[in-house]
Amino acid sequence: MTAFDAAKEYQHWLDQPHLPAEMREELKSLTNEAEIRDRFGADLDFGTGGLRGVMGAGLNRMNIYTVRRATAGLALHLQAQGEDAVKAGVAIGYDCRHHSQLFAEIAACTLAAYGIRAYVAPLLCPTPELSWAVRHLGAAAGIMITASHNPPKYNGYKVYNRHGGQLLEDDAHDIKARMATFADIFQVPSLARDEALAKGLLQSIPTTVRAEYLETVVRELRDPRLTDERKQLSIVYTPLHGTGNVPVREALRLAGYEQVALVSPQVEPNGDFPTVKSPNPEEGEALSLGCQLADDVGADLVMGTDPDADRVGIAARDKSGKLQLLTGNQVGALLVDYMCGRLQAGEQNSQPPIVFKTIVTSDFGRAIAQAHGVTVEETLTGFKYIGDRITAYEADGSYRLLVGYEESYGYLLSPIVRDKDAVQGCLAIAEMTAYHKSRGETLFDVLERLYEQWGWYGEKLVNVELSGGDGVERMKRALAALREQPLQVEGLRLIAIEDYLSGERRFVADGKIERLTLPTSDVQKFLFAGGHWAAIRPSGTEPKMKMYVGVRGNSAGDRDDTLSRIVETLRRRVAD
To answer: Which residues form the Alpha-D-phosphohexomutase alpha/beta/alpha domain (predicted)?
Structure first.
């Protein structure tokens, strides 16, 4: 973030003659100096995830001007790549959030000022569909206007490369540097909408793109072992007021599912997300209405997607018939087992399969894949890294994707896109559930069988917020203290420490050091005997840390006890 004289910048905004009336009134209503400093003391940071922030007036807010500057940075970035990138253009999608469609149009008109054609989605667009459109249209980049599962006051701006994957660090840093060349945010070039249209620089993505995406998803994921079993599966689906409603339902219909009940209060797109505290399928509350409907209609499966339909959460029946939520790690392991089973059933390919997981995702899926002779590769946290590895292996022909997943409910089964895909996820989960139901098993039956076979894996994510003005400094001290004195848990033997900031894995017994092959990142991971581990990383500039713990027990009780001990020990170390 760049620091600014907040009072000076605030006045500069008020002095703009063409400032929208609504924004001017918002600025005039500001009387709190702390609020002015927050809005104008620094700009909204552009990272590998692009922009994400509260909507409103100010340098540190999501608005038409911050979107325009980010897009100008992207335009200069593409121009530096050459004429072919400029001619290829940029695909733009947007979700249901407030101002998303406006921000998409602002981005398009900014690109037009640089002679770069923009293809804008004609209607609400899931993130994975935007990734597909980039590849399908042969665009040089993509922009997705979304804040994923954040509260209603947020919006965001993700940038995709020509492969349909989110930007990695080098490209993001280049765009950020080019954004910084605009000292005055009001001097960023932009064409009027009518002029952009007249010059052919603002076009709609053809409606056939969605149809072809959905047909390809169904063709890639439909299980040839199933026939009428799909008609026997009863599903409840909720898009949580987001973009998933049409594409998820259509994918299920095309695949042959006839019993799909919708959570009617959550079907219509609504940026206020009025029926949930948070439109996040990781949180059980988000699926509560879906579970109620499932009990009313006797459904086998509940699925809910987040606003931009790149993640999916589910609930399924246990042995007693009660609906239970499954974690992202559990669903990922079940999908790995299911897809490996499809390989054994004869679905072959000339390239060997590979499973991708992140370093903070459970080892449960790894154990299952390796038992089937399938290669497993770990990446840093963030699906952009999985997408990048898929692209690399596609280029050299060495591997093809079987499953890519992360603990935060993101799954990818086919490389037709390069980001997590809840449309694919919903169809694959339905196929998996229908297959196991045809064999007299629920997903929980399968899960228990896998635990008995490979060990009782358990995981927990803990967010630790360090409130107060010194929160960021306390976070830095806690991370530094763990580097100086590694985590020790009573009753467990620490084997090695992986520090992704220094790029080293150090073994405790003999001090031996190995180089890590993944990119640099401020993550520490502690490996204990028995297959247990803990990892910790900061959450950007917020005074918050994310702690991940994974264990492998001999029983459910052993698993839960070990998990609790590691979590509590880590909490104490962070709080000290």
So the answer is: 45-180, 212-319, 328-452
* Residue type at position 53: G
Residue % of the chain over a pLDDT of 90? 90
Domain boundaries, the chain: 43-207, 235-272+279-454, 456-575
Q: How far is CA 130 from the centre of its chain?
A: 14
**For residue 189, what are the contacts with CB-CB under 8 A and spacing of at least 6?**
72, 110, 113, 114
CA distances in angstroms from 85 to 78, 138, 173, 182, listed in the order given: 6, 10, 18, 22
Tell the CATH superfamily of the 43-207 domain: Alpha-D-Glucose-1,6-Bisphosphate, subunit A, domain 3 (3.40.120.10)
Structure tokens, 253: 């219909």
* DSSP type of residue 519: P
Give every CB contact of residue 338 below 8 A, 6+ residues apart in sequence: 428, 431, 432, 435, 436
Specify the CATH superfamily of domain 235-272+279-454: Alpha-D-Glucose-1,6-Bisphosphate, subunit A, domain 3 (3.40.120.10)
> Other CB atoms closer than 10 Å to residue 84's CB: what's the count?
10
DSSP code for 166: B
Chain mean position to CA 558: 32
Element holding 402 (H helix, E strand): strand 400-406
Do 43-207 and 456-575 fold alike per CATH?
no
Contact 142, 90 (CB under 8 A): yes
The model carries a pTM of 0.95
Matching CATH number, 456-575, of 3.40.190.10, 3.40.50.2000, 3.90.550.10, 3.30.310.50: 3.30.310.50
For tokens 């809910």, the residue is 304
Residues designated as active site:
148
Nearest-angstrom CA–CA distance, 286 and 213: 27
Q: What are the backbone angles phi and psi of residue 259, rounded to the nearest 5°?
A: -100, 80
The two structure tokens encoding residue 299: 């459904």
Who contacts 238 (Cβ-Cβ below 8 Å, separation ≥6)?
Answer: 262, 263, 266, 267, 287, 289, 290, 302, 303, 304, 305
